[in-house]
Amino acid sequence: VFTQTSLSLLRTEKESFSHQTVYKIKRHTPLSKLMKAYCERQGLSIRQIRFRFDGQPINETDTPAQLEMEDEDTIDVFQQQTGGGWS
């Protein structure tokens, strides 16, 4: 049985800054656990956020093992933009 813990690094990028947070998650735990924890900590709805690994969208049912993640891999987090169009 493979029980190694994977360290996942979440990186949030906004126009003015970049922020990194480290989360520990087991390799076979759905990433929804990490995604929900991040959103709760930031006071955001999971519907407002997009998570990507190696440029690909992450599904809530994906696990680090399925995505072949390794220690210290980075998950990028993007907040959905609303408005801002020209009138």
TrEMBL record:
Record keywords: Isopeptide bond, Nucleus, Ubl conjugation pathway
Record's keyword annotation contains Nucleus: yes
Record-linked Pfam families: Rad60-SLD
Protein origin, superkingdom: Eukaryota
Location(s) in or outside the cell: Nucleus
Annotated Ubiquitin-like domain residues: 20-84
PROSITE patterns on file: UBIQUITIN_2
A GO term from the CC aspect: nucleus
Main subcellular location: nucleus
InterPro entries: Rad60/SUMO-like_dom (IPR022617), Ubiquitin-like_dom (IPR000626), Ubiquitin-like_domsf (IPR029071)
Family to which this protein belongs: Belongs to the ubiquitin family. SUMO subfamily.
Database matches in PANTHER family: SMALL UBIQUITIN-RELATED MODIFIER (PTHR10562)
Name used for this protein in its record: Small ubiquitin-related modifier
Species of the source: Mola mola (Ocean sunfish)
